[in-house]
């Protein structure tokens, strides 16, 4: 046995500090904490383009946003590119995908047929392109275009499907790559069974230090309720992760029966992007702040990836595909734009990158932040707009990014001026490396998503699905 299995657990809109093991937010995650103690937690893991569909396309193609062309939601990822699952399939892996996809464009509720649009996941498919109705969800399975309705809380059923898949793979000799893509903790924050929602009282919720408490009472209540629901979703996911880890702990690997799957499987836990949740007075994502770009990333590979290690070396979503291919002993496609960080992941801090690229290239009018380009290093976050420098934070001295060094006062400091110039050189190098002309947000949208409205493609109506949903609701009544 020379190739490890891979279990990739992907959440949606979970920020890097929303785990108990970080010591930052008061959220109960015993299974994530245990996974971190058994593997390495990357404290400086970054979503290159922090929005749902662009980030997901970056993960599974190993390409930056202007290369895979999925610049914002509701568009289809560019086909015919290199893909993570495609590379593993060619190397003999069985690749399955369960959960949220959000890379196929068209109607969010439509069926994604077999072929290129599944980006190499051709062994098992239990997917909805995009749904955030966690108590009234659905999916399509394998080649069957008929809707399958989820009974109960979506993450539980998706985990049931994942365990069933893993059990089937435990009887086979080929290595597997399973992605389990949960839709939570993305809003709606309160859509879950009562037993989960009741774990957090909104009255007990504490803000991060960069989330202003000086607001009208109804705003405070609304924000605390959002955070309570967000944490409740995460704790519920943590319980489902525990089920997966228990299965790996207890199940022999058929290729090496003396070992359990926990010993032969790389477990990767991450998210597509974070969530502002009121920090800096902002909400949702697509911004350069840590709450938006910072994502949880834990990797465990027993005996290979160091246990209990925390690293602040920069690593980003575009690097996952080439790095995991390398760890699997699989050739990296020459088109891949991420870095092979296998040696860094295995513990060599000297092999970490100097910086990673962050950007959101389109102008979405409902998000009160401009399009930006920037970098994250071990110590700093720096972002610019077409008008000039936007923000510069010292993440070590100012972890909640409350002191923007791009200010009139700071410009009198030769040290800060020199730092800004050094980081700007990195941005310029990344613009060249990613062939990014730094056009206006509307120019990018016109080029990559014609027909957009204020930076967003309109959602496509699905009349067939609407009728099916009405019929289901009527049958339940």
Structure description:
With 477 residues, this protein is α/β, with parallel strands linked by helices. The protein folds into two domains: 5-353, Alkaline Phosphatase, subunit A (3-Layer(aba) Sandwich), CATH 3.40.720; 370-438, Arylsulfatase, C-terminal domain, CATH 3.30.1120. It is 31% helix and 18% strand. It is built from 14 helices and 18 strands. A ten-stranded mixed sheet has the order 7-6-5-4-8-1-11-12-2-13, sandwiched between helices. The chain has a four-stranded antiparallel sheet with strand order 15-16-17-18, with helices on one face. α1 crosses α7 (217-250) and α5 runs parallel beside α7 (217-250). The radius of gyration is 22 Å and the shape is globular. The N and C termini lie far apart (53 Å). The model has no long low-confidence stretch (mean pLDDT 95).
